[in-house]
Write a structure and sequence with these properties.
By secondary structure, the protein is α+β, with helices and mostly antiparallel strands. 28% of the residues lie in helices and 33% in strands. Strands 1, 2, 3, 4, 5, 6, 7, 8, 9 and 10 form a 10-stranded antiparallel β-sheet that branches. The longest helix has 22 residues. The N and C termini lie far apart (47 Å). 27% of the residues are buried.
């Protein structure tokens, strides 16, 4: 199994903040740091990820249980384009995280969501081979699509990134990330924003001082878990309505 990813461990902090606090903080950080290379003319970019899990939903369960060692797998695109399709593994080791990724083709993706992981073996990357193996041995398969807009700032010191993830949505009954008409469901009803801070060894002190003013709530839940829960709640609500209506909508 793939193990070399654990050499690039990073710190990650997540805060849930109000939209008003995001607007104020974004202006301050924007005056100090440049945005990352993915940024479009609108000032942010759209991220869509398809999260994978096994037959026991191990990634979900381990995250909810707070396990210190866990992995989660996803396929990610930007701005609904097939120019860059990333197969990724995000791994937690103790208090830190690391991410390993490799590029796959649209053909590999389409075959995978249709139940055929074999084209992944065309890749020479160990991660693709690991996902193939897990798909065969533990029935790793598509679970939920996760959408959001990202506003990202970078600092070269300690490979620092500050991101604001807005308008988090979960895909409804579809795992095709290239479906531009895919229906989605909002996770937050009050436009909350996820502030994420990532760095290698230490966080620049002047940015730390700035972020001390943030009144956010530190969170441990992943976007995968939040979207999976949102879809579970939506499906339960649909079942309840169906029961009230005598089995018909």
């Amino acid at each position: 199994m793939f193990t070399s990813a654990v050499t690039n461990l990073r710190h990650e902090i997540k805060l849930l903040i109000t939209y008003a606090d995001y607007v104020a903080l974004s202006k301050k950080i924007g005056a100090l740091l440049p945005k990352d290379s993915f940024t479009s003319d609108t000032g942010d970019y759209f991220i869509r990820s398809l999260y994978l899990d096994d037959e026991y939903i191990s990634s979900y369960r381990e995250k909810m249980a707070g396990s210190d060692k866990r992995k989660k797998y996803r396929i990610r695109i930007y701005n609904c384009s097939d120019n860059v399709i990333k197969l990724e593994c995000k791994q937690k080791v103790g208090a830190r995280i690391c991410k390993t990724s490799c590029s796959i083709t649209k053909e590999m993706f389409e075959e995978y969501i249709n139940g055929n992981p074999t084209p992944l073996l065309k890749s020479e990357h160990d991660l693709a081979k690991e996902v193939y193996s897990l798909t065969r041995s533990k029935l790793l398969s598509p679970m939920v699509v996760v959408d959001y807009d990202r506003e990202a700032y970078v600092h070269p010191l300690s490979n620092t990134r500050i991101t604001f993830d807005k308008f988090l949505h979960a895909g409804i009954n579809d795992v095709n990330i290239f479906n531009k008409d895919l229906l989605t469901y909002p996770v937050f009803t009050d436009d909350l924003v996820i502030l994420e801070i990532k760095y290698d060894y230490f966080f620049p002190s002047y940015l730390a001082d700035l972020l001390k003013t943030v009144r956010g709530k530190k969170i441990a839940l992943s976007k995968y878990c939040m979207c999976a829960d949102a879809m579970l709640n939506l499906n339960n609500a649909a079942v309840s309505i169906n029961s009230i209506n005598g089995g018909t909508y």
